Amino acid sequence: MADGALTGAITGAITGGIKHIRATKLLNSMNANALDSGYDCIEIAEDLQSLNKGRGGILTFKPKSGNWIKVMEYGNVDEFTYHSVYKYGRYVIDPRYGQLSTTGQYISMLSKLNPLGIIY
Amino acid sequence: MKETYIQYDCSTELADLISSNLTISQMRRTMFHVDDIYSRVPKLSFALQNSDKESIYSKLKHILESYKGNVSWTLQYPKTKKHSSRKLYVIIPLKIANMGLLERGFADIQDYNKNTEIGFLGDEYEDFCKQAINDVKHLSAYIKSNMDW
């Protein structure tokens, strides 16, 4: 491997590690307040983005068919008009889902719960 | 341990009533989980898009507070915060609303656990969940009648 490529690989690994640590901290920071039923998922996502100095973005999911999207929260399935999560790097941070997931894992989980399809 | 209690699933009845008569921007459809009834005290979180939504919220609150059920109910208004337009209103037992969970934040999960619904209600928690669940069907009918839907 050329020096440049090696340096790039190392930098990428370090950046990825930092993002993982930061994403885990963000997830844990919202554990308690996310339990508030009046705290909408999009607000949680916006507040997480704000906590992370504006980095990352927000993903909003809706059902492709019907009025409700099924979402896993605290080990149970709930239905919502829409569902929003904070996306940072390759991670989705959803405190009510409770575990750090990659975007692909998270979308896969939602797709299984909503076999008629989701849009985002 | 999860427990099933009810024979008739009315967990989405109130949500379906409101969403079929009003324009909602967000709603958590399930008030409680049929196969895990102690996972939370029944409540319905939602936000409306109707142009006259403020008067609708006010009317709903009045109707809820006039309902005589196993438990007393109310409409909890969102706490004022920067994104106040996106805050959810919550149909919730008055006793839980009075805990003030929506008015305060929690330092951490330990802080929450000390002040959670279970912690607040103690031995009464499971019976309270059952009593509130038993209200949902009649509460929905009461709202339907009083809203002239």
What distinguishing features does this structure have?
heterodimer; A: 120 residues; alpha+beta; five-stranded antiparallel β-sheet; two-stranded antiparallel sheet; 3 helices; 7 strands; 41% helix; globular; B: 149 residues; four-stranded antiparallel β-sheet; 6 helices
Q: Could you characterize the architecture of this molecule?
A:
The complex is a heterodimer of chains A (120) and B (149). Chain A has 120 residues and is an alpha+beta fold. Chain A has one domain (3-119). Chain A has three helices and seven strands. Chain A has helices at residues 3-29, 41-51, 103-113; strands at 57-63, 69-73, 76-80, 83-88, 91-93, 101-102, 118-119. In chain A, a hairpin with a 7-residue loop joins strand 5 and strand 6 (101-102). The longest helix of chain A is centred in the first third of the chain and has 27 residues, at 3-29. Chain A is globular and about 55 Å long. With 149 residues, chain B is of the alpha+beta class. Chain B has one domain. Chain B is built from six helices and four strands. At the A-B interface, helix 2 and strand 3 of A face strand 1, strand 4 and helix 4 of B.
Give unreliable regions of chain B as ranges. none
Helix amount of chain A: 40-55%
Distance between the amino and carboxyl termini of chain B: 39 Å
Amount of beta strand of chain B? 5-15%
What is the multimeric organization of the chains shown? heterodimer
List SSEs of chain B in N-to-C order: HEEHEEHHHH
Major sheet details of chain B: 4 strands, antiparallel
SSE ordering of chain A? HHEEEEEEHE
Share of residues in strands of chain A: 25-35%
Largest two-chain interface: A-B, 22 and 37 residues
Distance between the termini of chain A: 39 Å
- The total count of strands of chain A amounts to 7
- What is the total domain count of chain A? 1
How many beta strands in the DSSP annotation of chain B?
A: 4
Shape of chain A: globular
Overall average residue pLDDT of chain A? 87
